[in-house]
Amino acid sequence: MISHNDSMHILIADDDEDDRTFFSEAMMELKMNNKLTLFNDGKDLMDYLANPDIIMPHILFLDLNMPYMSGFECLKGIRADVRFKDVSIAIYSTSSSEKDIEETFVEGANIYIKKPNDFTKLKKVIKEVVNINWQFHSSGLNKETFFFSI
Amino acid sequence: MKLKKLYKNTQIFKIALGIAIVVVGYIASVFYTQMRGLDSSVDLITNSTETQLELEKILSTISMYESNLRGYIITKDESYIKNRFLRRGEIDQNILKIKELVASNPNRVKDIERLNKLIDHRFDLFRETLLLSKSKYFDSVIFNKKLQESNSFTESMKTFVYKTINAEGDKIKVHNVNHQFELEDSIISAFLLVILTLLILLLSFNKTNVDVVELKKANDEMKFLNLSFTNAEKIAGFGHWKINIETGLYTFSDNFYRLLGEEPNAFEPKLENLNKYIHRDDLENVIQSHKDSLISYEPTSLTFRFVLTNGEIKYIKSVGSFTQNSKGEMIKTGVNHDITEQYVKTLKLEESNTELKSINEELESFNNIVSHDLQEPLHKIQMFISRIGDNDKETISEQGKTYLSKIGISANKMQALLIDLVNYSRTIKGDKVFEEVNLNDIVNVVIDDLSSSIDDKKAVIEVGSLPTIKGISFQIDQLFVNLITNSLKYSKDTIAPQINIYIEDIGIDEFYNDKLILDSDYHKIVIRDNGIGFKQEYADKIFMLFQRLETSPKYSGTGLGLAICKKIVDNHHGYITVQSEPNIGTTFYVFMPKEI
């Protein structure tokens, strides 16, 4: 298991450059001792994950609306591969439509985050999500706790 | 009543008539045999009388001969014995006649034979007496003896004849008595026959009369029905037809011709004559299906086009089925229905349906644009505002800070509007699944979701026991979110908001737009607050799209929240009303149907 003191490997796939910047800036400001890897779209992410020599990521933040390969397709692909069974997947999207929430839940995402409109809130979200006791969160997972509310 | 019913039953009447005819026949035959009996009685009597007469004639002839002989003996005058003396011919004729008359009676025949012999002997005696009287050796002793013998023989012959005559007389007497009885019987029979015949005739006449009246009534009704049917056909655009499969003859109704744009009976009702009216593309199928059915006796249902002589096209639905007529012949009857109007309407409906679908799809994509594509740049704007606010707090002028905060407020407002627009469009969309919705569960979740604003306002929400209704879960959720948010938003600064949610019985005179609302049909859900309220005259306005009563920036709003509520309640076939008083508070009443 990963203890909070260990360095965590966090991935984020988002086609929006600004959102990637916000995310990395927030991580920096939080001064967390974690490794962050950024991907410009779903295809980038999947190509990276296909490499067997990578350091196994702990948390993956996944935007849904991306060109080439949507976040939803990535989610399906990752959940179909037993290598990534311990990777926690956080959906990270502007949309909060019922349909998106339901479908990603069914396909095995661990948490659904609506992108905050405030930088302070963003930092709060990242901090909380990274510090979640994933084992506990996943065992009691249901549709009510799936949607992350700040 | 029962008798009347029996009387009305023609079947029973037929049976009665049959029995009556048998009885009359029987009585008539009895009468006939009686008449025949009478006839033979009369014959018998005539026969006996004639026999008697002939016998008397014989006796008188013999007596005449006797007296003639006596005259001769006394006077010796030859003239007594000259003429007609001892001529057997006359008597033989009598005997012959008697023999004929009594031929049926063997005893009597024997009697007559004996009489014949007696007569022979008497004639012998006559001749002997005559000879003795003429003899030259007249011996009076012998002569007297002969005369005496003759006399006694005549007597015994007379006795014999009278015995026979009497026997005939007795027979006549018996016959007479029988005749009397038979005559009486016959009279009774004849009388009965006449009475019975009269009775049957009367009943039959009456029954026929009644039947004729009923038949006429039925006929009139039939005529009226026929007329109504013809009219109905005209009005409804029906035409009917039939074919007798045995004879192959078709019948077309008047309106059948009219549907073809022709006058009734414009042409002979034949299948071939229809060919030119049926659309070229439909012709083969129609004729084939019809002909096949005439073999299989399967009902047909065909839709095809008639092309009228003026070029007009009519859509026809023709259904046909088989029955047997009273002669047991197979008949196919059918109805042609002009469905042109319907067909055109259906086409139009299909068109509008397709249009509606594409509009719906457009709405869907609009929805996506609003919910995602528009929110993304907005999200970016908000993020950058917060970045500037955080990082460059010190370097921005006071005015710049004010502007920045105004931009932030506007961006938030825009976001709220986008969310409401999405919500509103979701309430108009088609996919509405009605399910059991427990209102208490919904309200609890909503309160939980709104907990931060509730805590901010220090609001107290009391929820009573609410029913379970049939509804669209996410819409009911939205309804309570909007109503509670509304109450929180328009609360007074001075006191903590108090919101009560409960159900109430519906009074006996509650109306919604002149429609009486009954407690048996609806749940009445009350949402009451102690907020700023408004003047009751604006009650209708608040449910309209983009209508806002409060314009002060303190009360932010999109003007969509209550319009969404109204739409949701409409979707559930319910009603929403409001009662408000400035500074006292506002109460919303939601009426939801108990059964859908």
Automatic annotation (TrEMBL), chain A:
Span of domain Response regulatory: 9-130
Keyword Phosphoprotein assigned: yes
Signal peptide: none
Keywords annotated in UniProt: Phosphoprotein
Record PTM 4-aspartylphosphate, positions in chain: 63
Entry's transmembrane regions: none
Entry-linked PROSITE patterns: RESPONSE_REGULATORY
Transcription listed as a keyword: no
Source organism superkingdom: Bacteria
Pfam families: Response_reg
GO terms under biological process: phosphorelay signal transduction system
Protein's recorded name: Response regulator receiver domain-containing protein
Gene source species: Flavobacterium frigoris
TrEMBL record, chain B:
Entry-linked PROSITE patterns: HIS_KIN (PS50109)
Broad EC category: transferase
Top-level taxon of origin: Bacteria
Keywords of this entry: Kinase, Membrane, Phosphoprotein, Transferase, Transmembrane, Transmembrane helix
MF (Gene Ontology): phosphorelay sensor kinase activity
Catalytic activity as recorded in UniProt: ATP + protein L-histidine = ADP + protein N-phospho-L-histidine
Keyword Transmembrane helix: yes
Transmembrane segments annotated in the record for this chain: 12-32
Cited InterPro entries: CHASE3, HATPase_C_sf, HATPase_dom, His_kinase_dom, HisK_dim/P_dom, HisK_dim/P_sf, PAS, PAS-like_dom_sf
Family matches, as PANTHER family: PAC DOMAIN-CONTAINING PROTEIN, PHYTOCHROME-LIKE PROTEIN CPH1
Name of the featured protein: histidine kinase
Native source species: Flavobacterium frigoris
